[in-house]
Here is the input.
Amino acid sequence: MMVKQFSMELAGRTLTVEIGKVAAQANGAALMRYGDTVVLSTATASEKPREGIDFFPLSVEFEEKMYAVGKIPGGFNKREGKASEHAVLTSRVIDRPMRPLFPKDYRNDVTLNNLVMAVDPNCSPEVTAMLGASVATSISDIPFDGPIAGTRIGLIDGEFIVNPTADQQLVSDLALTVASTAEKVIMIEAGANEVPEDKMIEAIFKAHEVNKEVIKFIDRIVEECGKEKHEYEHVDTPEDLWDDMVSFITPEAMEEAVFTDVKQVREENIRQIKEKLEERYAEEHEDWLPLIDDAVYKFQKKTVRKMILKDHKRPDGRAINEIRPLAAEIDLLPRVHGSGMFTRGQTQIMTITTLAPLSEAQKIDGLDANVTSKRYMHHYNFPSYSVGETKPSRGPGRREIGHGALAERALVPVLPSEDEFPYAIRTVSETLESNGSTSQASICASTLSLMAAGVPIKKPVAGISTGLVTGDSDDDYIVLTDIQGLEDFFGDMDFKVAGTHDGITAIQMDIKIHGLTPDIIREAISRTKEAREHILTNVMEPVISTPRDHVGEYAPKIMQMHVDPDKISEIIGKQGKTINAIIDETGVKIDINDEGRVDICGVDQAMIDRAMEIIRLIVEPVEAGKIYEGEVVRIMNFGAFVQLAPNKDGLIHISKLSKERVEKVEDVVNIGDKVKVKVLEIDKMGRINLALREIIK
Here is the structure.
């Protein structure tokens, strides 16, 4: 295939796509250049479907290569290892708009690989990879109902910025990514500084307009370079099996089985239905036995969707805009720095907050030069017992990483600055029970936990999810507030929104259909605002409305001071001797950065104060007339030398030890004694003369 090149201007920078130059053996490949960012995107599919599965096996990879930013990977191996959290999150953002556009019964393995080869900080490799995955798949022979396009929107001084540069991202009040087909929005991901709902909606549609122009560009590439889509083995429930099952079980019986507010009851009802079908087909239709699970799933789905869409009846009997029963608690665990629990129906999350010195912030070795550390870390765990299952724990998967990142993004805008609260903060959300929307419950539980821990967040944050069931036309749909697991499984959308009373802090939207109309987006955001207000006002704030004014008994206390950077070497001392002596004396932990910020961390406030006093004595000149506390370090016939601070000794002459005559210095003080002294003078040679008797009453 001859090399073809296509270009367009996108947000003031040139986007170039080269087809046929590299990776010719992939089903589809595109070498993407956006400014100086280069990403190789490939789409490959297996020749045959994977046997024994009832899902589409899609893998999306975002490979970060450190050479792309002129770095050698850290660590001993000096080689890229498993995907970073950032790479996992980017893969998820690409996966979510792509997956719904593949055929629902496609069972061939598909891998979309995006290899980041060079990074221009002002041209997002994430956006470039999303566009590359769309191009590579669209020109391939893999069945795909695309293309899609993705755009980032920033918000600076009230103005929208399309695909903001690195510097613009640092000051933007919005980090919004929107993916679209030519007609509809198909994915939304956002972090925001309390952006009002109407402004967020405007930003989403702004991105959609940009996406439509990019899709026209991709359509031109597909027209010239696209391959004919290959045929594949279609998977469906045999018609005679379906007819027999529906007549035997009946829609009324299936409705009775699934419409209950207790998940375990529903699962038992479905298990019994499957048993009946297995008994029915065991002899005469043995070939149907492997198809029963998929057939019953489709029967449930059809039943649930029909009842919701046509009769406005939800499985647990709630109204369309009704939230499940809610409960909030704090201080469940002793000795931890903070704990909170949020329960929504059969979904229950407990979040634990841990505070530490800023030196324990997470260090990040990635492609983004602006992000080298992370002071707030949110981790989300989803053990199998939370859904009544058993399987070994293998560490967090992509879903857990994604849910943790969403909650983290929702809470970052309300966290205090490092100057206001000089702590590294970690929250861990443990899923104790799950029946839908655990990620949003973790946001609520984390807010409770942070406030209980004494973290002075600016405002409480709550999260809620809405769902969707659609019919045959764009205006035939129903939006559901607070979806449970069944409505998520069988519905078309999981639209998660978190925020304060005043605005949105995070959005994540997943769908299973080919996009959302503007009316659906507006209604979903409106519903989440109503629900969020209810959760904050009536559930969370009655439990704890403002952060506690101090950290807990077992949390470290941190005092912060600023010193002249030129004095840092004096604090540290030769080979760390001075700072280690302070630590040994007080038991505190001391962190100093290059700007002269000193963080002193400990549990004993008196020892923190002592360490701060020592450091202050090191960096500030000793003043005549002031009283200091020091240690006797040397005794001579004529007096005692007292160390006021490292490398700052003063002399108490024997005549200044007491109002009475002193025959021998040791009669008054000995080496190691802690004494309070007054500085009489600092002579021309810088010698410090002290008096003990001046402070004896």
Observations:
- Residues 197-225 form the longest helix (29 residues).
- Residues 470 and 477 are 4 Å apart (CA to CA).
- The two ends are 98 Å apart (CA to CA).
